[in-house]
Amino acid sequence: MNHPPIITLTTDFGDTGSYVGALRGVLLSRCPGVHLADITHHVTPFSPLEASLILSQACPHFPAGTIHLAIVDPGVGGVRKPVLVRSRGFWFVGPDNGLFTPFLDGADGLFRIREGWPDSETSATFHGRDVFAPAAAYLAAGGDVEVIGEPIRQILQLHIPRPRRERNGVVGQILYSDRFGNLITNIHRRDLEGLSGEIGVRVGSYSIPRLARTYDDGAVGESMALFGSSGYLELAVVQGNAGGQLGVGKGERVQIRGAGAP
Amino acid sequence: MNHPPIITLTTDFGDTGSYVGALRGVLLSRCPGVHLADITHHVTPFSPLEASLILSQACPHFPAGTIHLAIVDPGVGGVRKPVLVRSRGFWFVGPDNGLFTPFLDGADGLFRIREGWPDSETSATFHGRDVFAPAAAYLAAGGDVEVIGEPIRQILQLHIPRPRRERNGVVGQILYSDRFGNLITNIHRRDLEGLSGEIGVRVGSYSIPRLARTYDDGAVGESMALFGSSGYLELAVVQGNAGGQLGVGKGERVQIRGAGAP
Amino acid sequence: MNHPPIITLTTDFGDTGSYVGALRGVLLSRCPGVHLADITHHVTPFSPLEASLILSQACPHFPAGTIHLAIVDPGVGGVRKPVLVRSRGFWFVGPDNGLFTPFLDGADGLFRIREGWPDSETSATFHGRDVFAPAAAYLAAGGDVEVIGEPIRQILQLHIPRPRRERNGVVGQILYSDRFGNLITNIHRRDLEGLSGEIGVRVGSYSIPRLARTYDDGAVGESMALFGSSGYLELAVVQGNAGGQLGVGKGERVQIRGAGAP
User: Fold this and answer.
1) What's the ipTM?
2) What is the model's pTM?
3) Is B221 exposed, middle or buried (0-12, 13-18, 19+ CB in 10 A)?
4) A-chain residues within 8 Å CB-CB of C66?
């Protein structure tokens, strides 16, 4: 049995208005039968960094051959290029503003969409509908990338802040907060390799003396630190909202120490 | 023509971030071609009771064979079991926290997902992605439940508050408010059988002297009581917001009287 | 290869509760394999005019044969008729309250759904689930419209405010605000034909001296006017929120002048 191709959608369009509907219409018109899978339409407006983190966590779970369409495009109609990135068996389609940074490692094809494709009368303000969706549908329908894209050498990379190693410790920061108020940091499980003793966490004016294993591993209302489902350290509160309770958010410094540290 | 299997999704993940996207990826990878139908991702976080009410009203409309995946899981990674419930021609997949209470009447198969399935390296914090979605996809793809589940005798049931009969009257409560501010009670049409005379409703400091038939059955701004589309008594305001206007909400006592009552 | 029929969904149901899920269930039960494409579920409650604007911008992008189901229905259960409109190769299904005004030009079939269809025991409060979804599914499955509908002569048309021409100028108004705070007016590109000199815009206490081409065509925080992707004049702020910054919204008067005007 032949399965329909899949296009995922990641935008900052929100859920009001006609923008997402227009995208779906274009995709279904140009690639009949395509399976459309929303990742999110609620990226913070104009935040390619946030979008790139979401893509890095959702896209790898899709089957090979999936087309990932991402439209977070503060520079629409300006000089930024529309690009196509082939990486790890996927296609990524969107503006050249760093959205696809997490997938550049592993990329084996970089293209810009040819000027004037699919036609020279595109709107200046809605390239999602008029350029990116047609390109994603074209690739999903099995079209040849060389027809719509010309190879390029490089695309924009975002700086994703990396944690810093210290004497028996690591200093990182909060990257974002999820729906439950869990605070996700840029500190990965592997960044803690070699730390000795029980691990403690400091953030804002709070100390968390140990790492938990699950969100349930403590009394209701207790704050905790644990490794989340993508391997990154999270701050959480049992059945509560860590962002609200700890009074910290995006960008806040997070300090990890092994037990023997001063 | 052969139609794709259907998996419905009911979660408290909201519409930001990567969680729902990761679920869709896993489901499409493990059951190619599956039709994914969102019920809602906006269950109040950590509210299995609310989720069970939503499931009770949405699921019965789907075709037989549909797999209903529900992930509202405050106890993720803790001792609660991952379960599979076969009832009324459907499968229900999710944590054992009472989510499926409305479907236990009619259940003809209860299973827990075998420990270590689908692999022993699951994250402790995202069983939705790592255990429940794989199980739902497995069943949607026609897999044999005995391979992934072992029969169990019982699962958790939530206490759903029931109305109480009084002399020519009924006392119930508001269970939830919908998007329009309509207040849905636990009083079903059949709970009023045998009441005599014109029906009146009291809630908070308000009296509503009669039952309306539709939301349109009164002047704009008028408060009313009527039986909603699932047969339960609702309080509403014509083209307005009953929750706001009456100043009452979830848990508020609602009293029904036949006309002859004191 | 045969592609599944498409039904789009436009409602004011929001994303909580069971209403949208129940719709999907009915549609999938009555038209197995149908492709469901959300336009939006976030129309402002009870606003057929807003819904009609959204439909006018999203629906034309879908392939011919698509069924557009729209349920914004403050008069549910009252006297308004349930209607079926065939226009421009599409079917539109919903209440007769003006929702389909933008598609009456080009309509070649108007029907009301026969009383008592699909059965006489429909709820009085959820015709979306009990009448409109069954009708959309029936048409999507290739059913004969004469079986479920009887021809009618006319349906309700909404008054969509039109801009007014003045001496070397045009006066219109803001129709709605999008997710980014862009303010979309009722002034179309063609309404400005024949204006002489550089175009200036006045709204509230602000003057915008020229038209921009893209949202990016200015410094961050600068206010601008430009033609949006549907050809209508929009007020925007570079990477900002025009509604918030200019302090104006829906219904606000917008005045366009050619350079020679007093």
Assistant:
1) 0.90
2) 0.92
3) exposed
4) 25, 28
